[in-house]
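#struct-help
A.M.: can someone run this one for me? Single chain, 156 residues.
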Amino acid sequence: MARVFVYGTLKKGQPNYKHMINTAKGLAKFQGRGRTVEKYPLVIAGKYNIPYMLNIPGTGHHVAGEIYSVDEQMLQFLDEFEGCPDMYQRTLMRIQVVEWEGKGGAGEARAAADGVLECFVYSTATYPPEWVGLPYYDSYDASGKHGLSYVLRECR
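D.P.: on it. Structure tokens below:
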């Protein structure tokens, strides 16, 4: 099992959460909520208003999201879904646990003892330069005050 941190449309209550609970795509078990230890710019960009975490450590906000434990099948699905490695790149990042629900072996308990976990995160280093000038968010909600409606993949 691998740990994945999601900050956008795959979170609970967001447009693509249905994929996280679709066992035909693999297993994803909600572990808790967290935020990036380092600051990153989270922008909403492109003609489909997609949330992107730009891989520029030290700029932006501590981005909030959810931590999942996923099996290899779900990880492969997420790589494909996120257009990895072209649109997003899956990298390890340090995530500060805010609220922990996960139950697991002593290794998981120890890893969370200092409140910081290493999780895979889909961020991007392949973005148009003008995205750096977009507003930065600390969390994403498809129906947030930003007024930028996310366009589902099946509607594009």
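A.M.: thanks! The first helix runs from residue 17 to 20.
D.P.: also worth noting: The two ends are 32 Å apart (CA to CA).
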